[in-house]
Specification:
This protein is α+β, with helices and mostly antiparallel strands. It has 3 domains: 180 residues, Beta-Lactamase (2-Layer Sandwich), CATH 3.30.450; 79 residues, Helix Hairpins (Orthogonal Bundle), CATH 1.10.287; 155 residues, Histidine kinase-like ATPase, C-terminal domain (Heat Shock Protein 90, 2-Layer Sandwich). It has 10 helices and 12 strands. The strands form 3 sheets. It has a 5-stranded antiparallel sheet, with helices on both faces. The chain starts with 8 loop residues before the first helix and ends in a 10-residue tail after the last strand.
Length: 498
């Protein structure tokens, strides 16, 4: 057997199908060649015997007629010789067609017979004439002997027809015919039916197998192309397929999704590790900066009280104090960023928490002419969280909105619940956020505002993740940004130790 393991799938399937179809093809060829040869041998024997009879009858008639083509003479000669032969060979029927009178004479029967009435004899001659007409016409047209297999509605017979010439002119057609055995007729008919059925089954099977092969190779090609795409982008998926190929494609898609999730987890883990290391570094730096800034501010305050007589000193002292306060605020954010895990969880009602934050920031909103739209569902489920930390998140988002709307605008605060979480959204009417900034807006020290520290949103993102939630930023096509904080319900709360 040829090794197929190193061949392509298409070649292997074709080889197996060809081997499976080889046996019925050989059987069919045997039937066509050897069985047909056995039929030819049987028909050859019948042709030899009946041909001898027909030629004997024709030669005898020609000898008796001499040069007289009178139909009466021909008929008398035929009846004499054919009648004697019909009695000697039961089951053989002899006939003579008279060209000049366009009628036939018949001697003998193919079946067991009885004495026929004149009317029955005429009907029989008419029927026999119809059955032999095809062979008679063939002899008349060619002038040569003809052997043929004829059939009726319930029988088959073999006949040998030869021309009768007088003075070189065709005057009649003599023939001898014998009924073929019913088993031979049925066998031939059945073999023909089997042959056609085999050819049809072979064609249908070959077409079906070709369709299966093409479908199989096409689906394998789809999987190959899908795997090539997955090498470049794991978010690509293989198309749905039926059957076993569908199971393979679904398994590959599941594996790809698992790899994507694994990559996301690894990326999140690396990010959290970087944030932890960065937090420690930032905390140390913040502590180192805190004391010098405090000394600078205290010195400025002493200068303001001791050097009141110096002209324009108040303006410089005020500037120093403002910058010192700004740096103190940045230092506090750095310290908070460096220790975000210091949280105390308790049951919190989101609606009450948002109301407290809005109450404390209301003067700031009025100062900047910002209109507040509040839409909080009254029956929001409770959450587990650190009240002060969550307040810090909401305050940061409100301060961001105020900074992008310094000349007034509208701030919409909405609260709603999903099946798994409670969400609070803050939507402003500012200029919006560029698409390239949306991807990095929660990164530490990334800011789009002049003078910004870039830690407010990063700290808010950390706090929300510690609570097992997420914060999303979106920007509308016509401006305006929306920040949505989603926190798990109290029963589904899970603390994350990043």
């Amino acid at each position: 057997m040829l090794p197929l393991t190193g061949k392509s799938l298409k070649f292997q399937v074709v080889a197996v199908v060809a081997a499976g179809l080889l046996v019925p093809v050989l059987v069919m060829l045997y039937d066509i060649i050897f069985a047909s040869q056995s039929d030819d041998v049987l028909l050859g024997n019948m042709q030899e015997r009946l041909g001898g009879m027909a030629f004997y009858v024709a030669s005898t008639i020609e000898a008796r007629a001499g040069s007289n083509p009178d139909p009466a003479v021909l008929g008398a000669a035929f009846n004499e010789i054919a009648g004697r032969m019909a009695r000697s060979y039961p089951g053989v029927r002899l006939g003579l067609y008279l060209v000049g009178e366009d009628r036939i004479l018949v001697q003998g029967f193919l079946h067991e017979y009885r004495q026929l009435s004149p009317e029955e004899a005429r009907r029989r001659e008419a029927r026999v004439y119809r059955e032999a007409a095809e062979g008679i016409n063939a002899v008349k047209a060619t002038g040569k002997p003809v052997a043929r297999v004829g059939e009726t509605w319930d029988d088959r017979f073999f006949e040998q027809l030869v021309p009768v010439h007088v003075n070189g002119k065709l005057v009649g057609v003599a023939w001898a015919e014998e009924r073929m055995h019913p088993i031979f007729a049925q066998s031939t008919r059945m073999r023909l039916m089997i042959r056609y059925a085999t050819l049809f089954a072979f064609g249908a099977g070959a077409f079906g197998m070709l369709s299966i092969i093409l479908t199989l190779t096409r689906r394998v090609g789809q999987i190959q192309r899908g795997l090539a795409r997955l090498e470049q982008d794991l978010s690509q998926t293989l198309p749905e397929m039926p059957g076993e190929m569908g199971q393979i494609s679904r398994a590959i898609n599941h594996l790809a999704r698992s790899l994507v999730e694994k990559e996301q987890l690894l990326e999140e883990y690396r990010r959290s590790q970087c944030l932890v290391a960065l937090g420690r570094l930032v905390t140390n730096i913040a502590h180192e900066l805190k004391n010098p800034v405090s000394i600078i501010k205290a010195t400025a305050q002493i200068m303001a009280s001791n050097l009141k007589h110096v002209p324009a000193l108040d303006e410089y002292v005020k500037m120093i104090e403002e910058q010192a306060d700004r740096h103190n605020q940045l230092i506090r954010e750095l310290i908070e960023f460096g220790r975000p895990n210091d949280v105390r969880f308790e049951e919190v009602k989101p609606g009450e928490l948002v109301s407290e934050v809005l109450q404390s920031t209301a003067p700031l909103l009025r100062q900047h002419n910002i209109i507040l739209d509040l839409d909080i569902e009254p029956s929001l489920p409770a959450i587990k969280g650190d009240r002060e930390r969550l307040k810090q998140v909401f305050v940061n988002l409100i301060l961001n909105a105020v900074q992008v709307m310094p000349d007034g605008g509208r701030l919409s605060v909405c609260g709603f619940a999903t099946q798994e979480a409670v969400c609070i959204s803050f939507q402003d009417t500012g200029p919006g956020i560029a698409e390239e900034d949306l991807k990095q807006i929660f990164q530490p020290f990334y800011t789009t505002k002049p003078g910004g520290g870039g830690l407010g949103l990063a700290l808010s993102d950390q706090i929300v993740k510690i609570h097992g939630g997420e914060i999303r930023a979106e920007s509308g096509p016509e401006g305006g940004a929306t920040f949505t904080v989603c926190l798990p319900r109290s029963s589904e709360h899970e603390v994350r130790e990043d």
